[in-house]
Amino acid sequence: MSIDIAAVTFVLRAFFEGSSADTVFVGGVPKPDGHLDWIDEMLTRSEPHDPDYRIFGKLRDASSTVIDAGAHYGYSAASIWAVGSTTCVLSFEPTEAIAPMLDRIAELRPGRFDYRVIALGRRLGQLDLVVPVLDGVGLTALTTGIGHPDIAAMAQNIATYASAHGGERLTMYRFTAPMGRLDDVLAKGGFRVPIDKIVAIKVDAEEMEADVLEGARATIKRHLPLVMAESGHNPRPRAVMAEMGFKMAELSPSGDMLQETAMPTLAVNGWFFHPSRQAEYQAGGILAESSNVGLSPSVGAPGG
To answer: Which pTM does this prediction carry?
Structure first.
């Protein structure tokens, strides 16, 4: 038996909108939902965990690096390589319990992977975070800032996990992580991967994507990378990227390249590219010709 979405929503609303005294997990740090023994097998996979990651397979410069903001236990890095990318990956993850898994990736991919345990944002400081916990297991992929909950989305994700893996008792675990701006963290250097050529940035920060992008403005303006942001349909990330002159794109119906869109996508991930790179991306099979840019098919374009 597993907790249903109504019960999940009740707990989340009690925690985020009311008194959290009865729902805070007080038994110490929860067990993470990732396992060290998964890593070796994960790095042998030839399929990505998300179809959008096929786009990263077009990036083949081994001297370049993809920034992975919101690494969890490293499945984004694994997916980037699974689709044929030869880039390095520099990951950022605020959950310290995940570090042994990221250490294992660095061991198995020497010179191609590095990470920092830190939350990326728009300022230097500390960030209060919360992790949903089901029967003592922390759903670390759903870690979010205390002030940035999307309760409906979180409830759906928790209920889906419970249905697949079981779980009856939902509690919430709070912790504090160091936070910094990507621009400042990169300026400090000391990485085991090159950072002089950032070709792409992936951001999955549970409704904090805009803050991460705000703290990466200098990096984005310098490198003009391809950017994939979860919640890319959200107006805040779109506004940040538009201010820097980037255009929006989404995965094409064929699934093997991006297509420019004049309207916000309803897909989970939103993509952004700089117009100065458009011809390069089209030549490399990353971006489709944009002669028919109009309404996104996912929001009801005529004939879509």
So the answer is: 0.90
